[in-house]
């Protein structure tokens, strides 16, 4: 299946699953492909993940910037049990995401399966898609567990 066919399939899946992010991403890549804007692919390949994380971080920090979260709130939350657990969760998540990034670099075609899995999670488990990197991290964890189990 060519890249165009796969993008069209992702577009249709995104529409059927009511996932605006998947549909929009597929549309933008199809537009870039058909308008011969090849520099977009190299830009996204090099910096796309960083740009996505930047926008995610910006959206998370907006309550801090507009004063909805105070310094006292932060200190309390970092010294409470939930705050300490969130620090541990953040550290573990970044470690897992590193493994997911390695998996995506080694096996980039796995993205299609990650997207299908994310769509299934949205439709049947009422999940929220946080991106292929976290999905790849979980897949890397499963893969590592399978390797250990097979020994």
Helix content: over 70%
Distance between the amino and carboxyl termini: 35 Å
- Alpha-beta content class: mainly alpha
Multimeric organization: single chain
Structurally, the number of domains stands at 2
Extended strand count: 0
Q: How many DSSP H or I helices?
A: 7
Main β-sheet description: none
State the shape. globular
Low-confidence stretches: none
Q: What fraction of residues sit in β-strands?
A: under 5%
Kindly provide the radius of gyration, computed on alpha-carbon positions and rounded to a whole number of angstroms.
18 Å
Mean pLDDT: 87
Order of helices and strands: HHHHHHH
Description of the molecule:
It is a single chain. By secondary structure, the chain is mostly helical. The protein contains 7 helices and no strands. The protein has helices spanning 3-16, 20-34, 38-65, 71-79, 81-106, 111-125, 132-150. It is globular, with a radius of gyration of 18 Å.
């Amino acid at each position: 299946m060519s890249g165009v066919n796969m993008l069209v399939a992702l577009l249709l899946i995104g529409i059927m699953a009511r996932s605006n992010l998947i549909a929009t991403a597929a549309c933008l890549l199809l537009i870039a492909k058909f308008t011969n804007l090849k520099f977009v692919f190299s830009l996204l390949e090099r910096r796309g993940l960083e740009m996505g994380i930047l926008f995610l971080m910006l959206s998370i920090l907006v309550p801090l910037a507009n004063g909805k979260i105070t310094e006292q709130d932060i200190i309390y939350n970092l010294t409470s049990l939930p705050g300490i657990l969130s620090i541990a969760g953040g550290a573990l998540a970044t470690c897992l995401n590193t493994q997911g990034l390695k998996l995506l670099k080694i096996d980039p075609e796995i993205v299609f399966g990650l997207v299908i899995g994310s769509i299934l999670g949205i439709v049947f488990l009422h999940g929220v898609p946080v991106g292929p990197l976290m999905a790849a991290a979980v897949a890397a964890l499963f893969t590592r567990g399978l390797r250990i189990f097979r020994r």
